Amino acid sequence: MTMLAASLMHFIIKASNKSEKFSRKNQQECVAYVIFAVACCCGALLLTDEKFSALMTLSASFQCLGFALLLLQVLRGRGTKSVSTHTLLLYMIALSFRLSATVPYESYIPVDRSGDYLYQTIEATSLVLVVATLFKMLNLYSDDFTRENKLGIMSIIAICGVAAMYVHPNLNQVIVADRSWTFSVYLEALVMVPQLFMLTKLGGAVESLQGHYMACTFASRLTMLRLWSKSYVELSHTEEDKWAGVGVLGAHILACIVLADFMYLYVRSFRSGRAGIMPLQI
Asked: What is the DSSP string of 138-206?
């Protein structure tokens, strides 16, 4: 019995030392995770009213956490070759267009109290993080990443813009706001394509923080897919916008499909005990 207690104590001390060492080495990441956990718990208890639409706020929180982790990686100057500036630029455009529709209007926001200001604040924070990351990439580490094909990003913007013009809901009854929100949804479905293309081109390995950022993006898209799989019919009220719900739901399905292969490798890297590095043969 004494030997068992001694062994248990030794195990606890060893685990505590490892935990302390990990916390010191990854202090900034731990702070980001703690803030995320506390914000989600407090928001869920105080602001969601247990409404289904709170999934929209949770999705925005996952994405914001991902951007925070990516900014930490760029600030450290590690793995900047594998960060796509085109993906960051597309995110900046998507978030800007969505905020232009969700700040002055109330049709595409959570119906619980988190839609009063929290959801928009999280989205605005994500936009600030993206701009800060893009600024660092372009000004401090301009020699650390390969040039990307500008034709690809212009094609993505054009395709999403045309799709948003013809297939969009009309909940706001304001054509510009409705198309802006829909454009942001369609753009997010393809926003990670330049990033994945760059990872495939470079090969090798990706920094763990960037892997976590992409995993957060997948979690965000999966959460939104869950939301719209139950609510997409609400976007189609007239004959004119009968395909709007299908278009929005299809965009979220596509966003999950785009990242599915990477997520398989991401999960496999954890199971193999190499959580810090994700293989890029995708």
From this structure: HHTSTTSS----HHHHHHHHHHHHHHHHHS---SSS-HHHHHHHHHHHHHHHHTTHHHHHHHHHH-SEE
Q: CB of 190 within 8 A of CB of 254?
A: yes
Residue 272 located in a structural domain: yes
Residues in CB range of 95: below 8 A, 6 or more apart: 123, 126, 127, 130, 184
Q: Is the dihedral of CA 208, 214, 215, 220 positive or negative?
A: positive
Nearest residue to 145 via CA among 196, 202, 89: 202
In tens, the pLDDT along 25-82 reads 455 566 665 666 665 666 555 555 556 778 898 899 999 999 999 999 888 877 777 8
Q: Which two tokens stand for residue 102?
A: 């969700």
Q: What's the number of domains the chain is made of?
A: 1
Q: 5 lies in a domain?
A: no
Model's pTM, two decimal places?
A: 0.82
Q: Which of 220, 150, 153 is nearest to 190 (CA)?
A: 153
* Any domain includes 21: no
Q: Is residue 18 part of a domain?
A: no
Q: Which helix (H) or strand (E) holds 278?
A: strand 277-279
